[in-house]
Amino acid sequence: MPYRRLPNTDQARLRAINTAILMGQKKSVEELAFSANTLNRLRNFFPGFETNLIHHKLARSQQDKNSRTYLEAAKKARIYLSHFIQILYFSIQRGDMKAEVRNFYGMVGDKKSPSLILESELLEWGKKMIEGEHQRVMHGGNPLYNPSIAVVKVKFDQFVDAYHFQKTLQSNTVRWTQKVSGMRAEADEIILDIWNEVEEYFESYPEEIKRERAAEYGVVYVFRPMEKQRNEIGIRSGLNF
DSSP letter at 101? Predict the structure, then answer.
């Protein structure tokens, strides 16, 4: 016997609900295989569920689409900032500047180049290097070039803008994900009630016809591997006659 498989994805839930609603539009209440109360509950639930799914899909799409722009901005900022830090350390190693200038950049007692791998590190050290270079120049130091801090700041500001925009998109995705998640239990409950009522309505029908009629309402039946194999063998045997 094939078994009934309830939807396990949001799109499958939406298809099941939409199929039941269409059957409710095609048939009168008397002809419908599930109750009028269930139909009303279904109609009240469907618009909100569909709207949340649409917004969730759109939010995810926008986040994914902007991700490439954001990653490219982060990559550029990381490269320019890293090169600027290298120029600073090369100047100290050559003796063009004293080691104490590291204090302007917040590198007190640290002789190693700071890590820029994490977003938080890139944000932290971008600000420190820009502010530190301004402070050092204000105290009589010569500006560093290739890259200059002005160029670094342009790339860093582009990254910061992209970072905040990406965080906004991520927050939108999370918000709609939570809204959809909060409706899944009710969606599953409604679908289960419909399928139970439909199967009960066609209970007196022969098994194969019962499944065909129930399938019109969106009920999904799945053959187990051995059942599917036996069914295929039976079909081939019938064709051989």
Answer: G
Phi, psi of 4 (to 5 degrees): -85, 130
Contacts of 77 (CB under 8 A, 6+ apart): 122, 126, 155, 156, 158, 159
- Dihedral angle of Cα 210, 214, 219, 222, to the nearest 10 degrees: 20
155 closest CA partner among 73, 70, 66, 67: 73
pTM of the model: 0.80
Do residues 53 and 180 make contact, with C-beta atoms less than 8 angstroms apart? yes
Residues 190-225: tens digit of each pLDDT: 999 999 999 999 999 999 999 999 999 999 999 877
User: In sequence order, what are the beta bridge partners of 4?
Assistant: 221
- pLDDT digit string, tens, across residues 175-184: 999 999 999 9
CA Rg, the chain, in Å? 32
The token pair that represents 182 in the structure block: 């909060």
